């Protein structure tokens, strides 16, 4: 039996800290306990400040992991917590790698990305882990009619692990609206992970991530993100004020 995640508040949003997220998720998967995983960073936190519906989804999620460096540094410096950054793409990869150790053949579903991206990502993982078998996919660009087809497909297949790559906040809102279709599944927003797995894009070098500078590489790849990066200093200022006026840990 794995440890239970310890919950803290950052700007009123929950963040869960534990040593082994994957073990906890696998136990819930085997117990058929539906789980919504959110990977939170400073940018998402600031979006939630402006979007009450996103904030509500995060508060209702079963597991909120510290993905971004800003969130990790907040927990370390202001709450004195021993915590490591857990990028969503890495948690998803570890989860896929450990699925073959379960006693049943887990059904995996990739939803999101441009045409062919999710299918290329699925082929990559089928090559890496042949025991996964077929990974069903659905493109993130489609009509309202195709949305109904997607929902019917999920009901029919009943995948146990569903990765959604629609970007924030769309993927979090979509999961909250549709997780009832597969109530026993692990649902997780994975952002641009399909682009990485398909080979369309590259991740930042490890040394940048280890030094909390992965955002700089992302800005280099996608200069149009500069406006969104303004959320980082805003988060730093607001989180310091919040830590001075609130109790971060709630149990």
Q: What is the strand tally?
A: 8
The level of helicity is 40-55%
Q: Rg to the nearest angstrom?
A: 18 Å
Tally of discrete structural domains: 1
Specify the overall morphology: globular
If strands are numbered along the chain, what order do they take across the biggest sheet?
4-3-8-7-5-6
- Return the string of H and E elements: EEHEHHEHHEHEHEHEHHHHH
Give the low-pLDDT segments: none
Secondary structure class reads alpha/beta
SS field, number of helical segments? 13
Major sheet description: 6 strands, parallel
Q: Give the overall average pLDDT.
A: 86
- What is the terminal-to-terminal distance? 19 Å
Tell me the strand percentage band: 15-25%
Give a quick set of tags describing it.
about 250 residues, alpha/beta, two-stranded antiparallel ribbon, about 15% strand, globular
Note down, in words, how this protein is organized.
The protein has 251 residues and is α/β, with parallel strands linked by helices. It has one domain (6-245). It contains 13 helices and eight strands. It has helices at residues 21-30, 42-50, 52-60, 69-78, 88-98, 117-128, 144-157, 170-178, 193-198, 206-210, 214-221, 226-229, 231-245; strands spanning 6-10, 13-17, 35-40, 63-66, 108-112, 135-138, 161-165, 186-189. The strands form two sheets. It has a six-stranded parallel beta sheet with strand order 4-3-8-7-5-6, sandwiched between helices. β1 (6-10) and β2 (13-17) form a beta hairpin. The longest helix is centred in the last third of the chain and has 15 residues, at 231-245. The chain is globular, with a radius of gyration of 18 Å.
